[in-house]
Amino acid sequence: MTDAAWETLSDQAVAAAGVVYFLALLAHLVEWASLRETGGEGDGGADLPPVRRQRVAMFGRLGLLLTALACAVHFVSLLGRGLAADPNRVPWGNMYEFTLSGTFVVTLMYLVLYRKFSLAWMAPLILAFVLSTLMVAVIWLHSEVTPLTEALNSYWLVIHVVSAVIATGAFTIGGILSAVYLVKDRRGDATSGPWARVPSQAILDRVSYRIHAFGFPVWTFAVLITGPIWAHEAWSSYWNWDPKEVWAFITWVVYAAYLHARSTAGWKGRNAAIVALVGLATLWFNFVGINFFSTNSQHSYAEGAPAFVVEP
């Protein structure tokens, strides 16, 4: 296949993944709508009539299957972006490609953790986030495939960005859990309907903590180890007070404070969830905001309208 054919395949795969994600979201919304008379927290519809209970289970399985299919097609879009470049490269050369990679990791991580943490109830939230972010990427961030710039053309790109993307996916899922915790804190425990499927606040708090605890050392590796090493290789300096470097460090400090707060008596639950959401806000501002509001960042490389990202 030619480079142009690979790029076309990538664009078509993104569109196809978006359609399948949307169908998966619809399936899960039908599943949730069928639970409106469910009794008992997290019972999965045990008090529904058998026929209706079967429909709930069917649409839940269909939604999961479609999510896995969309994730596979999503991967094809990333593969196509990398093979469309001459020479072939990893698909992390600009903000559009990083957005594709980040949303792919969020979906993949959700599927991996689906059974371990019983995350079936999160499906509509994850799918809505991934689908809306992909729409933003396609409409506003899309750019043509180009070779890597000299600063990006390094094996440290793979090491640094892989760790940053994984941490971003973990922090995003952990942040969604923290947001749901705060909503449930205001609503209270539901005994019927879809909200009855949402785990207790204690479980939300614990799962969010575990996912953040996984993401933090990965982010530390990306920001405080591979980032400075790559910066020294590219610019002969480990630290340049670049806006993205500063905001990446701010994000690290906030999440360090979250983990400390979560392990300190009196700061579990609501207070820790608020800190986690502050961390998520700094993370995504660093990812998106710096590229649009900073004109002197060495980590932003202009091509067309939006500047694009190296380090989230």
TrEMBL record:
It holds the Pfam family Cytochrom_C_asm. InterPro entries: Cyt_c_assembly, Cyt_c_biogenesis_CcsA, Cyt_c_biogenesis_CcsA/CcmC. One of its GO terms (cellular component) is plasma membrane. The chain crosses the membrane at residues 12-30, 62-83, 95-113, 125-143, 155-183, 211-231, 246-261, 273-293. One of its GO terms (biological process) is cytochrome complex assembly. GO terms for molecular function: heme binding. Keywords: Cytochrome c-type biogenesis, Membrane, Transmembrane, Transmembrane helix. It is found in: Membrane. PANTHER family: CYTOCHROME B_B6 PROTEIN-RELATED, HEME EXPORTER PROTEIN C. This is Cytochrome c-type biogenesis protein CcsB. The lineage of its organism: Bacteria, Bacillati, Actinomycetota, Actinomycetes, Propionibacteriales.
